Amino acid sequence: MVVIMKPGATAAQIGAVIAKAEKLGCQTHPIYGEARTVVALVGDLTQITREPFDALDGVAKTVRIQEPYKLSSRSARPENTIIELANGQVVFGGPEIIVMAGPCSVESRQQIIETAIAVKEAGAKVLRGGAFKPRTSPYSFQGHGLKGLEYLAEAREITGLPIITEVMTVQTVPMVAEYTDILQIGARNMQNYGLLQAVGKTNKPVMLKRGMSGTIKEWLMCAEYILSNGNSNVMLCERGIRTYETATRNTFDLNAVPFIKETSHLPVVADPSHGTGLRELVPAMAKASVAAGADALILEVHPDPDKAVSDGRQSLTPAMFEQLMRDLRRVAVAVDRYIGEAPVNIDAADVLERVRG
To answer: Which fold has domain 2-63?
Structure first.
């Protein structure tokens, strides 16, 4: 159930709605939009009627939300959620399409700094890289952990790029949150409810990847765990699902992008790297994602993909990424969006000489 306030409703009127709801045993989540405020009510609403709220000053109407996902639904918030980083220089959910790029795994200090400089020069606005890696085999490279986070932080200091990295356990949430700008929940952890609740209690933006066998409804319900714990800065990442097809790593569900945009107010991220698993297919699916309405892309880029310790087959070279960014800008303009140029304010040659030395 949502209580939709009239335009210009006062703080006191909004407070009266919240007080009434809490007195009736409901949890409240005020959602402040540009035009009006909506107070979402969650909990056991079977005995709650609309009349007590409709009678309050400043209330336009009270509406029951039919979908099981309450806080992520467009019924609760018609306007897009906007997530800002770097003092407003990076904005998810607006007209600009944000590109996040970097290696699957942070392998070394030189590798992540070299990649960070390359993707920034091409126009990426966020650096991705895994410090903790969930791998199918326990014998595969699992990431450098804290040292990887420190390398990412140094790359951010040099380039100015905010960073996104995966958090895998409840215990490591505080440590990862200290270093990163966006917490990533990987596909294998989509339904790790304890972890979802833990990141929901932080003030860091969260990117929730769709599980490899997760339905869209299940995905949105997992977002509810984060939202209901107080963190409204959530974005949803389509990264491909498991089907009977074996020609590609996953089946990239491009349908999910416009469907989520229609159903939810949360920003939508597309991951064609994991969605296809083949670097030669990544550019086409990245362009298709922009055309379908994605708010952001997350792409794997590695200085030497054939020597990558993980996901090299789906990683772009810096040269391929630079060409893709040029192509993506043309697609973005065609759908009334844009991909901005990243200001390059570093002496790349000097930095790389020091790092390699």
So the answer is: Alpha-Beta Plaits (3.30.70)
